[in-house]
Amino acid sequence: MSLPFRHLTRSSSRLSSASGPLSRPSWGASYTSGTRFKSSLLDIPVAADQVTLPDIDPSKLEINRTTKPKTPPLSKDLVFGHTFTDHMLMIPWSAKSGWAAPRIEPYGPLSLEPSCTVLHYAQTIFEGMKAYQQTNGTITLFRPDMNMRRMNTSAQRIALPGFNGEALLELIKRLVRLDSRWIPTEPGHSLYIRPTMIGTQRAIGVNPPSEALLYVICCPVGPYYPNGFKPVSLHGTTEYVRAAPGGTGAFKLGVNYAPGVMPQKAAAKLGYAQNLWLHGPEHYLTEVGTMNLFVVFKHADGTHELVTPPLDGMILPGVTRDSVLSLARSHANGTQKFELPDKMVVTERSVSMKEVKAAAENGSLVELFGAGTAAVITTVDKIGYLGEDVIIPTGADGMGPVSRTIWKELVGRQTGTIPSKWSVVVD
Ligand SMILES: Cc1ncc(COP(=O)(O)O)c(C=O)c1O
To answer: Which ranges form a coiled coil (predicted)?
Structure first.
């Protein structure tokens, strides 16, 4: 059964044009809302009346600039996620009045009551996206429509309110423009943008919150691997799972991340950099730390197969994952040729540790890597699995024949050195 907690009257079709140009809508939107969704599981009452409430409206933006602008640190001193820019975007929501006027405020603490639902029931979702500044000063975002769509999907999964993704994107652009002096321009540097939504209703009790806050903060970040690519080691985790069938792994919910911290510490104690999340008795590979996962096999007939696990409800539909698949598929079907193996197929299918281990032993494993916004591509050199290390091939530069080219093509499109419809200008 679908859960139409917020039926957006205007955004969903536009947002589905994943990489097409975003048309400029007339703001002052509204959405239709039943006050509660019907659920036989949760037994939540359904309001029969449908009311029209205001959606996010960029034309109502109020800007309160900081009177104490900070000095951005030197790029070489940046620690990922530890420095925040001067401003943040705030958009409160209530079930009674919909989305209130957006505000850009000086970055600072939120005032929340200790009874807020987010603090008890983890009613929080977030996104991770980046803005890049080109040498000519142009600022771009990479496929931000995908983040907006995923954020709406995640909101729906935990009954937070839906919103017009194009309107939020317009406001994010305003915030990025206002804090643009914070975008580091050195290669590999960017402004990491963190849209977040929390349930703010003051109430003990698990329900869709009647109040929420959407806010966006930004941090200048350097490259994840400042000294070039260094493959990481993984602990093939058989004792904990990140996601399960019917669970929430396919959504970007805060609740998915805290349970990964202790297994991460356990992996580090064993000498591995990250967890390789496995699933089921077959030990299917799912994700690496907080990245999607790719494996490359070379089959007996010389064909290279780029494999990633299917979006079966346990895998986060990553923007980078989709971009890797799209680039590799263009090469495989001949639409656009890259420096990739001639005979190549791209598949979304399950891969078990048995298959990876056998391929590592018989020489048909070419490489294995993670993909995500923060690090873009992370190659892997070994997997600790059931007491032994499975050795994964990597090239002398730490990359393999597929990851090297995909990384170059992706970064080019992200930073604007390779023109692409994925690159959205912040004008
Ligand atoms: C669990 C998980 N998988 C995959 C990804 C990669 O997604 P994206 O490429 O959209 O950053 C992320 C991103 O943070 C993540 O948290």
So the answer is: none
- pLDDT string in tens for the chain (427-residue length): 333 333 333 333 333 333 333 333 344 445 544 333 333 444 444 444 456 899 999 999 999 999 999 999 999 999 889 999 999 999 999 999 999 999 999 999 999 999 999 999 999 999 999 999 988 899 999 999 999 999 999 999 999 999 999 999 999 999 999 999 999 999 899 999 999 999 999 999 999 999 999 999 999 999 887 766 789 999 999 999 999 999 999 999 999 999 999 999 999 999 999 999 999 999 999 999 999 999 999 999 999 999 999 999 999 999 999 999 999 999 999 999 999 999 999 999 999 999 999 999 999 999 999 999 999 999 999 999 999 999 999 999 999 999 999 999 999 999 988 999 999 999 8
Please report the atom of ligand 1 found closest to the CA of residue 289.
1
The CB of 250 under 6 Å from ligand 1? The reply is no
Q: Which atom of ligand 1 is nearest to the CA of 291?
A: 4
What are the Cα distances from residue 414, in Å, to 63, 129, 373? 29, 11, 10
**Vertex 246, ends 242 and 249: CA angle to 5°?**
35
63 closest CA partner among 98, 99, 89, 84: 89
The ligand 1 atom at the shortest distance from the C-alpha of residue 249 is 1
292 lines ligand 1 (CB under 6 A): yes
Q: How far is the CA of 84 from the centre of ligand 1 (A)?
A: 21
d(CA 60, CA 47) in angstroms, rounded, equals 29
Distance, in Å, from the CA atom of 49 to the CA atom of 289, rounded to the nearest integer, reads: 44
